[in-house]
Amino acid sequence: MLTFRSMLGSLSVYRRLLNDNFFNPRRELEEQRKLPIIGHALAGTLAGWTVSFIAGPVEHIKARLQVQYQADKSKRLYSGPIDCTKKIFRNHGFRGLYHGLSATLLFRTFFCFWWGTYDIFTRALQNNTSLSAPAVNFWAGGLSAQIFWLTSYPSDVVKQRVMTDPLGADRRFPRWRDAAKTVYRENGLRGYWRGFVPCFLRAFPANAMALVAFEAVMRALPE
């Protein structure tokens, strides 16, 4: 939830900064024009990179806990997220906590497709339907989230491999592309899409409702 709020907050800031300073600089007595689609896509990427520095360590800890398959909890290396964080920081410092940051940044670069298509769908629905504003936000939010996962999912699979790679001398993937090659060698192209269907189906309702709430708040705020 913190990650999603950070993304939407930084997205709004980048949209305004790009519109006011690059795409449509303010001039007296001129009506301010809307940010173009490319601006929304760029704001999405910048927001993705920004939130990566918040989400990176969280996703790293989560990934390591998820691959502890021992039925006997006493045999697991980490007893929980706090224990995992302490052990990684004690042995590897902040660099250890941010292990996989480059893969996280690459994955969130695809936010350009999410927020670029969100603007495309929003304009199309506003211009060609009589849907209410919340309904437009719902459909545009859900559809754009699915576009995002269609374009980004392989990079997310590779990111997970990087984040669960052993730390220290036993590291298998010194570079992102090393993990990508391993996924292909083990399972071919299908390996990049493992687990895609449930993720894709979940993306629409979850993000559609989140965008409805976000846009409602933005409309309620003063200009």
From TrEMBL:
Query: Does the record's keyword annotation contain Transmembrane?
Result: yes
Pfam families given in the database record: Mito_carr (PF00153)
Q: Which UniProt keywords apply?
A: Membrane, Mitochondrion, Mitochondrion inner membrane, Repeat, Transmembrane, Transmembrane helix, Transport
GO-annotated biological processes: mitochondrial L-ornithine transmembrane transport
Signal peptide feature range: none
Where's it found, cell-wise? Mitochondrion membrane
- Ribosomal protein among keywords: no
GO MF term set: L-ornithine transmembrane transporter activity
Offer a single GO CC term for the protein. mitochondrial membrane
Q: Which family does it belong to?
A: Belongs to the mitochondrial carrier (TC 2.A.29) family.
Name by which UniProt lists this protein: Mitochondrial carrier
Which coarse location class applies to the principal site listed for this UniProt protein?
A: mitochondrion
Which InterPro entries does UniProt cross-reference here?
Answer: MCP_dom_sf, MCP_transmembrane, Mitochondrial_Carrier
Q: How does it sit in the membrane?
A: Multi-pass membrane protein
Solcar repeat positions: 35-124, 132-220
Transmembrane regions: 96-116, 136-153
